[in-house]
Amino acid sequence: MNRRVTTAMRMSVREFRRTPVLLAQLVFLPAYIIGAFVLLVPDVDVPATIDGTRITVPMTDFAAAFMTPVTFAILSGIVGLFLVQTSQAADDRLRLAGYTATDLVVSRVGTLGLGIVVVTMASVLVAVFAFTPESIVPFVAATLVVGLTYGILGVVVGIVLGRLGGVYVMLFSPMVDVLLFQTPLATDAPEWTTLLPSHYATNALFDAAFTSSIDAWDFGGAVVYAVTLLVVGVLVFYQATDVE
Amino acid sequence: MSGVHRTLAGIQASARSFIREPFTVVLLVVLPALSIQIYGVGMGQFPDVGIFAVSGSVATVGRITGAVFATGALAGVLGLFQMISARHADRRLAICGFRGVELVTARFATVAVASAVVGVVATLSLVVLVDDPITAPIATFSGLAIAGAIYGLLGIVVGSMLPRELEGSLLLVILADVDNVFASGLFGIEDSITQFAPLAHPHAIVTQAVVEGSLATEHLVPALGHLSLFALLSVAAYTYQIESGGDA
Question: pLDDT tens across A27-38, in order?
Answer without folding.
Answer: 888 888 888 888
